[in-house]
Specification:
The protein has 251 residues and is an alpha/beta fold. It is built from seven helices and ten strands. 25% of the residues lie in helices and 20% in strands. The longest helix has 13 residues.
Length: 251
């Protein structure tokens, strides 16, 4: 059996209880060493064999899983954050399906939620933004034509941008080209929830400058939108005049 486990956003205690239990019972762990907090490996049993997937190809990862299956061992494939977001898991699923190897997925706390928690912010503020776009800037790996940053920016809603810290000048240009004002609020969150986390509040046109000043070149999320100003309308959910299934509002 193979368990794909979300390691959480960085802090060791942000892995789920289910993920923790799976790490404890694993005979083999393949973890994304360039991103996952290695302290999580302290949960493994002494006999567990560990592989760092940062040094492996997809084929090598699948070979390790195949060997473990033949030996009737439990494998945990430990991914950063939640494996469903930029986790490159579907290609692994396809390979395992071809081999008739059973697997399941344990969700994790994505760094986008860790970043929001660190900034004490809400991505969806009434009267400001009710949608969240999760994306990345086109780099060596292309994106679909209609999902380019400048097209998505035309919505002017909240955006969380992964895998783009090394291209911030281009990112700013594309965001502004798409319709954001240059002085729109932005944030750079480096290693959200880790011990060495950094949070930088800035504007779209100062993203590159502020990243350089703070020595941030990778492993960071970019958040863009007026929600960072924290000036949304009051939610109707808890308004005394708002009737719900559980409470009658004042007249």
């Amino acid at each position: 059996m193979v368990h794909f486990v979300g390691a959480g956003s960085g802090a060791v205690d942000l892995i789920t209880l289910r993920g923790h239990r799976l790490l404890e019972k694993a005979d083999v762990i393949i973890y994304a060493g360039s991103l996952v907090n290695a302290e999580l490996l302290e949960y493994k049993k002494e006999t567990c064999i560990v592989y760092n997937s940062a040094e492996m190809s997809l084929e090598e990862i699948i070979d390790v899983i195949k060997k473990a299956e033949i030996e009737e061992k439990v494998t945990v494939r430990l991914h950063t954050g939640d494996p469903s977001i930029f986790g490159a898991i579907d290609e692994q699923f396809q390979a395992l399906d071809d081999l008739n190897i059973e697997y399941d997925v344990c969700p994790g706390v994505s760094s986008l939620f860790g970043a929001a928690a660190s900034l004490k912010m809400e991505y969806t503020l009434p009267g400001v933004s009710q949608s969240l776009i999760i994306t990345r800037l086109e780099g060596r790996t292309p994106v679909p034509e209609m999902e380019r940053i400048e097209f998505l920016a035309s919505h002017k809603t909240t955006m969380v941008i992964f895998l783009s810290t090394g291209m911030l000048k281009k990112l700013s240009e594309k965001l502004i080209e798409g319709g954001y004002a240059p002085k729109t609020s932005a944030a750079i969150v480096y290693k959200a929830t880790w011990g060495d986390e950094k949070k930088v509040l800035c504007t779209i046109d100062t993203l590159e400058e502020q990243a350089k000043v703070n020595g941030i070149y990778k492993t960071a999320l970019i958040i863009v939108g007026d929600v960072l100003n924290k000036n949304g309308d009051r939610s109707m959910l808890y308004h005394p005049e708002f009737t719900t299934e559980f409470r009658k509002g004042l007249e």
